[in-house]
Amino acid sequence: MSRYIREGDNPDLTEERRKASFDTEAMAELFWGARNLMRRREIANYVEQHREFDDPQPTAFMTREELIENATRKAVLTMEHAEKAIDITRDEESHYFNALTMGIDGNPFGLHLVMAIPTIMNNADEGQQDEWLPKALNREFIATYAQTEMGHGTNLKKLETTATYDPKTQEFILHSPTITSTKWWPGNLGKSSNYSVVMAQLYSQGKCYGAHPFFVQLRDLRTHKPLPGITVGDIGPKFGINTNDNGFLRFDQVRIPRRSMFMKHAKILPDGTYVPPSHSKLNYSAMVYVRAAVVSLMASHLLACSTIAVRYSCIRRQGEITPGTGEVKVLDYQTQQYRIFPQIARGVAFRLSGNYIIQLYRQTMTDIKNGDISAVPDLHAISCGLKAVTSYQGALGLEQCRMACGGHGYLQASGFPLQYTVAIGACTYEGENMVMLLQTARHLIKMAKAIRSGRPPKPNKVIDYLFKKGPTKCLIDQTYDPNYQSVLEAFEHLSRRVTLEVYDRLVQLQQQGRSYELAWNECAVDLCKATRAHVRTFLAKTFVEEVNKIADISLKSVFQDLLQLYLFYEVTECAAGLLEDGFMSGQQLTYAKKNVYDALAKIRPNAAAIVDSFDISDRELQSVLGRRDGNVYENLLKWAQMSPLNKHDVLPFHHKYLGKMMDEARQKSKL
Ligand SMILES: CCCCCCCCCCCCCCCCC/C=C/C(=O)SCCNC(=O)CCNC(=O)[C@H](O)C(C)(C)COP(=O)(O)OP(=O)(O)OC[C@H]1O[C@@H](n2cnc3c(N)ncnc32)[C@H](O)[C@@H]1OP(=O)(O)O
Ligand SMILES: Cc1cc2nc3c(=O)[nH]c(=O)nc-3n(C[C@H](O)[C@H](O)[C@H](O)COP(=O)(O)OP(=O)(O)OC[C@H]3O[C@@H](n4cnc5c(N)ncnc54)[C@H](O)[C@@H]3O)c2cc1C
């Protein structure tokens, strides 16, 4: 019996769980890996046993100051408990523990852990690492990553903060020369951090060498007051992540020692001589890390929101399908399945590719340490595209899940506002999505040039298909092929065609006299399409490869249903491109649609068990609609009764305004 079934649960949800064709626990093991699943359970138990991690009230009812104080309290507790609760050397355990204890809306260590420490690890030289890393890991300071300025986020070449080297004192002078040079956005900068990685234009011997990272103390270690010459604060409430004190920062001729510059790659010698790095973008590795991590992060958001939507849709009865047979669970509507199930399938696809890209990141960082930088451009290209596509599709998917939950989906109690507002930040941070799509397109255009000139680069799993000659006509038909060769070939065809077409147009525009840059801008929409097609191909191939590795037949069959849905849903999404050149026929699109509808029907009886197997706890979901026990209605009422507005039957200012107005209106009407 499923470990998710317990006495007192909503019977509709229990009925769903009993219907499953597979063992939920075995599926959870397959999804997370046996060891990880066991550790998740142990960590979750640990947190449940320490009630001090509980929020004093739902965070939706807290003011911003209360939110930040509560997050700070829990962050300190998290650090105190970490060594007892988890193996701190395992990222998976840290991420999970942090998500359970601190939630997803931000915490004072967010940027310290995901950007500052990775920058120290990858950009500090040995001496600097010896000095900074133990203190950073030991929480002797909290650092953030200050790169974006009010005037420039994308175009790093135009950052205005300067770091001018003074050989006489062997110091850099940090300065913010204009309002637009104010650092703006860095997470945890406003109030929590006392150190920061600061990106500034490096000047030495009268020459500018471009943006470089520096490690800068911002606040006094004892009083926590900003150091002389430093102005720092919170940028105010935002669309979401209001638990995070995203900040602003200005420097007024602040002197820092020469060794504050990160010197693993580029260096300034004491006399001011600049030593360039082996690759000009090695200083950007923390950004590459977060871009790669976003893929898994989007998987987590999608799987959480589809868990909420599926569970709620199992207990929500509304309307009849066959008149007179009683109200159905709303999950029985095909439209509901069409809204929610593709989000599950995309979540799974993102999880699988997310694992791949993080491994590639780790391998590339190891290679760099060993002096091999050859994988840097490939990692950059695929991580930019994946970040852009998964964050965008993730955002659309979460919104579908919300809308699938009707009016209650619009409540903060649903958990959707928190998930959505956190997730959509990823469309912007770490490189705005269009900009990221265009970065991948740069790589694709190089590949197109190589194809046209008949000189393929050295073999590479991600782009090899571009150099293949695929079928000239789409081979999708009604026969079942577990390798989905014809669908993958269709995606490859579309990617290859769009890439080559846009390349040819770029060349043609230049032949007509446009500069490369102007031609590029005229082709930008299609360049983005090429990236999307390339990323779709990558996600789809990774999904097929991973499903083919599954040994257990009953679990494999569930994954195959999700894969079928994923692939044919993507075919319908990019149908215009496949039909445009006559590669796919209208009939084949009809087959694809039929495959989507068939997959929805196959997934339907397993849906509740599938989302259970993602093993997302109520503590993580923070959702009344997505509760494991399905007891939504009584808990919605309890939740609303906790609203601070309900502390008073009559609001203290009622008689001052509305009461008075109505009294006066009644008086007048009596006259
Ligand atoms: C429960 C389990 C869940 C698991 C989840 C795991 C959780 C992990 C935690 C993750 C949590 C996430 C928390 C979120 C925190 C968010 C914090 C946000 C931080 C930020 O936003 S920091 C600021 C980010 N800013 C940017 O990204 C700026 C974007 N701009 C740029 O990157 C660049 O300027 C550019 C790419 C647009 C262009 O660069 P530039 O102008 O310098 O260069 P050129 O145009 O001249 O290009 C030259 C060539 O260099 C290549 N290039 C560029 N960048 C790189 C790179 N990084 N690596 C390699 N190569 C690079 C270009 O492509 C050019 O190449 P070409 O050969 O000439 O074509
Ligand atoms: C939640 C959140 C957290 C953040 N955290 C941090 C942090 O910790 N540290 C930090 O340093 N920064 C942080 N940022 C800033 C973030 O990295 C930038 O906002 C982001 O890189 C985009 O830059 P921008 O705001 O200057 O946008 P802009 O570059 O001004 O973009 C505006 C529009 O112009 C378009 N555009 C710009 N350039 C091009 C181009 N070359 N081609 C085509 N279109 C273009 C964009 O696509 C976009 O639509 C954060 C931002 C957010 C929203």
TrEMBL record:
Entry keyword annotation includes Transmembrane: no
Active site: E430 (proton acceptor)
One Pfam family matching this protein: ACOX_C_alpha1
Every Acyl-CoA oxidase C-alpha1 domain range: 284-445
Domain Acyl-coenzyme A oxidase N-terminal: 23-142
Residues the entry annotates as binding FAD: T148, G187
Listed GO biological process terms: fatty acid beta-oxidation using acyl-CoA oxidase; lipid homeostasis
Pathway note: Lipid metabolism; peroxisomal fatty acid beta-oxidation
Molecular functions per Gene Ontology: acyl-CoA oxidase activity; ATP binding; FAD binding; fatty acid binding
GO cellular component terms, A-Z: peroxisome
Main localization category: other
Keywords, comma-separated and alphabetical: ATP-binding, FAD, Fatty acid metabolism, Flavoprotein, Lipid metabolism, Nucleotide-binding, Oxidoreductase, Peroxisome
Protein name, per record: Acyl-coenzyme A oxidase
Species in which this protein is naturally found: Acrobeloides nanus
